[in-house]
Amino acid sequence: MRSKAFRLAPLWALLLLMVTPVLAAAQDAPPTTEELAESVGKLVTAVDSVWVAVAAAFVLLMQAGFGLLEVGGAVMGKILINVAIAFLMFWATGFALGFGNGNDFWGTSGWFFSSTGFPEATEYVYSASTASVSSLFFFQSVFCAVSLAIVFGSMLDRTKFAGYVLFAIPFAGFIYPVVAHWTWGGGWLFKDGFLDYAGSSIVHLQGALGALMGALILGPRIGKFRNGKPIPIPGHSIPLAITGVIILWFGWMGFNGGSSLLANGLDFADVIVNTNLAAAAGIIGATIGSLLMFKTLDVSQMGNGAIGGLVAITAPCAFVDYWAGIVIGLVAGLLIPVIVVAVEKLKIDDPLGALAAHGVSGIWGTLAIGLFGTAERMDPVLVSLVGLESREGLFLGGGLGQLWVQFYGIAATVGFTGALCAIVFLAIKYTVGLRVSEEHEMSGLDISEHGMFGYPEQFIDVPGAQPESARASSAAGAGSGSTATSPATSS
User: Fold this and answer.
1) Mean pLDDT of 460-473
2) Residue 62 and which of 279, 390, 453, 480 are 20 to 30 A apart at CA?
3) Cα-flanking dihedrals φ and ψ of residue 386, to 5°?
4) CA-CA-CA-CA torsion for 159, 164, 170, 171, nearest 10 degrees?
5) Single pTM value for the model
6) Residue ranges of the domains in the chain?
7) What is the widest separation between alpha-carbon atoms in the chain?
């Protein structure tokens, strides 16, 4: 009998474990409605904050894409210092100017960002995001860093390192955030109904305007134009450049998808689908354009086609249907080789094609909202947030109303950012100097600016790094100056 009782002991123990939680729960009062709402609110905030922070991390990775697309030791130094200055200046003044409470032109409070004391903007972008203000700061900081990276894509191989630093401070600390405030901070353009979901104009066009002013004030690289004709400078590495494009494409999932600033209550995957369709169409458009203009499949143009499609869909990605996203990307891709050639005919040296991929594509994408935007997609912003009447794109029977707002929003951005960037670059040029000497440009900025070779095995005897014949040839070329150019970039 005793042994039988011992054999039943495990069964009694299991039963006790099952009953104990039930008895404990019976003693606790059920949660109130307020407690349930508070718990749900905390969960929503956590989910929104995680998505925004993860999306921002995707965008930060885009700096690696720019690095591979531009390549070279001096480029890597430029990218590092740009990111550093963007974060620090956005912390000190940028986030306050862009998203602090103030007036319709700029924010006037919240200097030196503090997550516990920052006064949030009254209308933060297009959503009622519950994400933490710290995650929002991180997200907007990496956007600023992307815009800054675009600026220097047209200034490669001939700009003093000090020039990058001195321009980055006012751009990240004042120029970029003021324009961001006009729309994303609830400013005057937002109240007029101007739409730019993720930054075709606010991020990409501003970067391209800085790039244009910098390239004009710098002048072209040595040897780029001979007898009035542009001379191709081959890209350093097509595999690295296209890898850079793919990394940028990946980062765009956070760039556009994360601009919802929330994960709950909005299908951000809808934005991501539109983004990918436009990128794919951009490649097709650039491929067709390359065949028509150059009679060849220019891989660098195809890569820029993907970038152009991504830039163009960045503003309208939440406001147009999928078919329109494809049209927007296709047109952007078709424009890429046309604009690249036009820029060279104007004797503007743009090694990265930033003016085509980020400038013209940014303008086209921003205007496209006024052509293809649907009332169903735009009303949550225009009607619910801004309090305006419902609008629709011109090609959908909505008239010129939204297109006109998009146009003068672009014009205001061009005037403000273009003028201030020109002033800053001219001030740098006539004080500390913007361009390196001819000798330093010919020897390459890796060694003249940073004191080390970006590719040391080509110049230093590293046993086994490359065949003796190739090393001897590189050394002879470097000594004679016949091949002494800085690493070229992709077109």
Assistant:
1) 49
2) 453
3) -90, -25
4) 90
5) 0.84
6) 71-429
7) 111
